[in-house]
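Colleagues,

Please find the record for the three-part complex below.
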Amino acid sequence: MRLRLTPRDTPFFDLLADSAANLVMGANLLAELLGADRQTRKAINKKLSLAEQVGDEATHTIMRRLNKTFVTPFDRDDIYNLASALDDCMDNMEEAGDLIVLYKLDELPARVSEQIQVLQRCAELTADAMPRLRSMSDLGEYWVEVNRLENQADKAHRKLLAQMFDEITDPIQLMKLKEVVEKLEDSVDAFEKVANTVETIAVKES
Amino acid sequence: MRLRLTPRDTPFFDLLADSAANLVMGANLLAELLGADRQTRKAINKKLSLAEQVGDEATHTIMRRLNKTFVTPFDRDDIYNLASALDDCMDNMEEAGDLIVLYKLDELPARVSEQIQVLQRCAELTADAMPRLRSMSDLGEYWVEVNRLENQADKAHRKLLAQMFDEITDPIQLMKLKEVVEKLEDSVDAFEKVANTVETIAVKES
Amino acid sequence: MRLRLTPRDTPFFDLLADSAANLVMGANLLAELLGADRQTRKAINKKLSLAEQVGDEATHTIMRRLNKTFVTPFDRDDIYNLASALDDCMDNMEEAGDLIVLYKLDELPARVSEQIQVLQRCAELTADAMPRLRSMSDLGEYWVEVNRLENQADKAHRKLLAQMFDEITDPIQLMKLKEVVEKLEDSVDAFEKVANTVETIAVKES
């Protein structure tokens, strides 16, 4: 156990929790977008784009404070990595939504909605865990569960790719769908990276 | 404001400025290559490849010095990140040029030349900013402008992709063009990463 | 030369060596998989998947110890980067093998076996070098050779891509093969990253 001379009452905890709460909104908008018709999708996509901008601003606020603060609640690099990883989750989800609209993908494989359900679950778990960074309590279940979800999603993703290659005969349609599906997989990976960063922090503090 | 006990007169500033100046040459060669016929392209591509090797050597010089120097003008990791990010700009531009030649892409969408113009502007801004790291003066405009350019390029890139998917009916041609266009987009992203690293350094020093 | 107050007798050296030895098995399984018929490939792919899980576990062990250990044999971040880079080598090789099986790629371009031979050589060099981290002796040849192999593989990779685009007329087949070939190229890049991290450590210690 290392010596703790660091403050527990800093704005970093609130800022990280805000950033994670924003991800729940992002994942829910993505689920809504998937279920909507082409016209409604455009409107939902705009909301998703706005949520991404809010996330960007939150990340910048954390980075600026981080660079100006001498004593941080845990390793400076870990806060930096955590804020970057949270930002990546939103960037990937927003790009997936944008591609669905840009490529006019009216029909998506059924398993895409499973990918998005995993993202919603990851976002909820993450938003739920962030406030517990302050007390460093009960974080183990969170990162174990996100790692489990990511492993499961990775296996499902590869099967989905193989299935798409078997069933879709139009190569251009296949290219479009593949890009969306991979962007969703990148989003799940980004949530896993958040969880791994939290684990790193928690182990150091234990 | 943190205490400054670090030297202002170190080779790192010159090395980083050299590395950035090399990027201007890289971006200009890429613009030249785009406007040339197939035979001339090969010759220009060789020059681009040489410029990339010069960049590699510069990066290695910075890394070796960094690992051997005890007191650095700013955080060791920040210099490392800056040198790596500058290197990534060149690697991506060189790969884009090489793909254009390898895939014998005689005709490229008009918007590709806009992408390359953005790269030229980013390279100039970066080469212009690097020498100002020494005094840490007037860097704000640089990173704000590069971030603005990257945002604009990202939007243009997505529209270009959607347009390509609408208009190009030969899937293999589409795959080739998509790869080039994405490599150019990666190049812009790499310039943004340079700017973000400079911002990090500047905020710490302010 | 920096002051050395760090222990030479820590479990980190053994753990990193184990992780690298596992890569030799991974690269050999990949070579075996390539030469096998479709049915045997499935069985070999399962072994490769198990080797990847063993690698994951080794990485987690290193990370946990790293976060709990106050004095490490060299920079904490360097050990972290080294363990991550070793893990990336295996992840990429396992994914390449899995794609070959999932996409039912009975025939692969002849140059793919050259890519895998490079991976086998990189894995051997890496496994051979890791135990020498303890004494920091004779590491230069290792990283120079891996960098040389990566440069050569990069050039061969681009030529292979151009050749595939010239010769394969079925775009869906081309997409599948391209993904495998790129995953193998990512594997070589991951080995180069390991070598670069070792160089960083060695230069600091010299």
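Chain C has six helices and no strands.

Comments are welcome before we finalize the supplementary table.
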